[in-house]
Amino acid sequence: MKNKALFLFLLVPFLFSCESESYLPNDILDGYWVSVQPAKSSSLILHFDDGSLSVKNGSWNYRPFTDNASWSYQITTDSVLIISQSYFDGDDYENHNYSLSLSLSSSGKKLTLCYDPPFSSVRQYSFVRR
Questions:
Q1: Alpha helices in 1-130 (DSSP H)
Q2: CA dihedral in degrees (95, 60, 74, 106; nearest 10)?
Q3: Nearest 10 degrees: CA dihedral of 113, 108, 85, 121?
Q4: Mean pLDDT of each 10-residue bin along the chain, 130 residues long
Q5: Disulfide: which of 41, 51, 58, 91 matches 65 by Cβ 3.0-4.6 Å?
Q6: Which of 82, 10, 24, 19 is nearest to 53 (CA)?
Q7: What sign does the dihedral 62-63-69-71 (CA atoms) show?
Q8: For the CA atoms of 58, 59, 65, 69, what is the dihedral angle to 10 degrees?
């Protein structure tokens, strides 16, 4: 009987952990964020607003933010920012999805994003809220 109780005790948390991925409210990032590292002559600016992310001063140096574009986004409870972009290229729809590790300061004024591309080194971006 003890073995069955122990089995159920261990099984129940596992069953609840298998639910679909949970998301945090998008509004925790709402506003303008300006990059401070790596600092360039024209800093990368991210504007988060109600599930939409607009990029200004995007460039190859800021991969995956390579151009001025709009993305949709979600934040997982595991502190991962998932950005998505879909567009029609003339023949078919293209979808681009990226996952970036997210760290937000306790004051909510500093944001760090880490992007780990498949074929190059990890990129880390630091932002301040404006």
A1: 2-17
A2: 170
A3: 0
A4: 42 41 82 81 90 92 90 93 86 88 93 90 92
A5: 58
A6: 82
A7: negative
A8: 50
